[in-house]
Design a protein that fits this description.
The chain has 14 helices and two strands, in the order H-H-H-H-H-E-H-H-H-H-E-H-H-H-H-H. Strands 1-2 form a two-stranded antiparallel ribbon.
């Protein structure tokens, strides 16, 4: 599709989803809010790992920080919903500062450092009397909002956050920064030799992904109201991001979205099986890692490219020439001979 068609189609989908609370029940709205949060997390991890080659195990730091900053701002007197957005911006600012240290590391060192940084941030947040350690706290200001309105506002916040960040990633992938980031994902040293600004490009991707994860965190807080450090800063968020991107496909915008849909389906259909559900998810991730590393969208793209190549080859092959018609030679001797 052309860029115009993509934008118009995406806008139509967002419009339909925005009107859904007018006809849908509370249970569906809650489930879709959770799905939007998963999609947002998957898209952010996908752009960071798939475009810039940054494999982080610490994005839960920004998921939790967004909610923590929102709590602090509300405690300071700011209204709840503006505080949610401001909290995400604050988490992105922290990511910008952290990038000057973390982005000097590579591969496994970077992954471990991001996890350590996330744990340090969680411990520091737990020391704040407002959070009350492991007990956690609640965004009490949201309790003053009528439940149906609060549910719909949380749904709208998650939808707008997802749509806005997907639009930002789509634009980024088509911009010079996106081209530079893809070069970094393939070979950062070769990209640097061609004039790509390695650190600034990676920093832009890292901060964008942190902002998206923080938006997911404040959307989660707006939906759940409660803030528990073990949950909001839990490493399970990074594990879910990795699973969704691995299953859906790493090097495309649609891959993480497909992975989020698959994970959501598994949660809804098999989540009641407890440990067996977790074992099944782990086994599925192992199968994809071993036998289908390109993910579902990558497999579809490969088959589509192969079919197009075969069709082009068939069109370019000249048709065989038909044998020329010959006049039969009469070998019968005449009677006069």
């Amino acid at each position: 599709m052309t860029p115009r068609q993509t934008l118009l189609g995406g806008g139509a989908v967002v419009l339909v989803l925005a009107l859904l609370p007018l006809v849908a029940g509370a249970n569906l709205i809650d489930k879709l809010t959770g799905l939007f949060i998963l999609m947002l997390l998957a898209a952010m991890w996908g752009v960071m790992a798939g475009q810039a080659g940054l494999v982080s195990v610490g994005q839960q730091a920004f998921f939790g920080l967004g909610g923590y900053f929102a709590l602090r701002l509300v405690d300071g007197g700011l209204s709840a919903y503006p505080a949610l957005l401001a909290g995400a911006v604050g988490a992105a600012a922290v990511a910008w500062v952290m990038s000057f240290f973390l982005l000097r590391l590579k591969d496994g060192e970077f992954a471990i450092a991001t996890w350590v940084a996330a744990e340090v941030i969680r411990i520091l947040v737990m020391l704040d009397p407002l959070v009350q350690g492991e007990t956690g706290t609640s965004l009490i200001a949201l309790n003053a909002v009528e439940p149906t309105l609060r549910r719909n506002l949380g749904y709208g916040f998650a939808l707008v956050s997802l749509a806005g960040m997907l639009l930002a990633v789509w634009w980024l992938m088509r911009s010079p920064v996106g081209t530079a980031s893809r070069a970094l994902g393939d070979d950062d040293e070769a990209a640097a030799s061609l004039g790509v600004r390695v650190m600034s490009t990676r920093r832009a991707i890292y901060v964008l992904a942190a902002f998206g994860c923080a938006l997911a965190g404040v959307a989660w807080l707006a939906s759940a109201i409660t803030f528990l450090p073990r949950t909001n800063f839990g490493v399970q968020w990074s594990v879910l991001m990795l699973f969704m991107v691995l299953v859906g496909g790493l090097r495309s915008l649609a891959g993480p979205i497909v992975g989020a849909l698959l994970l959501f389906t598994l949660q809804e259909s098999l989540g009641d099986f407890g440990v067996w559900y977790l074992a099944g998810v782990g086994a599925l991730a192992a199968i994809f890692a071993l036998f289908l590393p390109q993910g579902l969208v990558g497999l579809w793209q490969e088959r589509r490219a192969r079919a197009a190549a075969q069709a082009a080859a068939a069109a370019a092959t000249p048709a065989p020439l038909a044998p020329a018609a010959t006049t039969p030679v009469n070998t019968t001797r005449s009677p006069s001979a």
